[in-house]
Specification:
alpha+beta, Aminopeptidase
Length: about 160
């Protein structure tokens, strides 16, 4: 692990955007949830139209993890599809991507960041809590069971935030 080269980049090139898109498809398959209620296929067909920012983590040059930032309007953004491929889990990629996305959202002037996740994704829930996310009422219609909606006030620095 110590000898691995890890880089987090803003995915802007065609190749990097395609790598993020593939990671998001892997994420959807991993969830084993039908994402039609989120218009997932339209999102994939017009990718990356719905995203303000895409971050890609590479490990030893290989696309390993990704996350997206969606603008919900009125100073509110949403963290979308944080995912690390199983072979790259345990390297801190989720932590780094989460922290970098929060920083980017703050620097872009967003005041709130929202996300949704599943109760069964305990490592993700733990990570979000460590970054200061709190559970909120649902902010969009999600028909799945076990969904947790969360929000982070970006105007407040969380002293307990994990060091990147």
């Amino acid at each position: 692990m110590n000898n691995r080269s890890i880089e987090i980049i803003n995915a802007t090139s065609d190749g990097d955007v395609a790598a993020v898109q593939l990671l998001f498809r892997d994420y959807a398959a991993f969830l084993k949830v039908d994402l039609c209620f989120q218009d997932f296929e339209e999102e994939m067909a017009t990718f990356p139209k719905f995203y303000k920012l895409l971050l890609l983590a590479r490990v030893d040059g290989l696309a390993a993890a990704a996350v997206g930032l969606k603008d919900l309007g009125e100073g509110v953004c949403e963290m979308k599809r944080l995912y690390a491929r199983p072979t790259f889990q345990g390297l801190g990629l989720g932590r780094r991507l989460c922290g970098d996305l929060i920083d980017a959202a703050r620097n872009s002037g967003f005041r709130l960041m929202r996300l949704d996740t599943l109760k069964r994704l305990k490592p993700a829930l733990s990570l979000y809590h460590k970054y200061g996310f709190v559970e909120i009422e649902k902010y969009y219609d999600n028909p799945e069971d076990g969904v947790v909606f969360m929000e982070l006030d970006l105007r407040v620095e969380n002293e307990d935030t994990i060091d990147s």
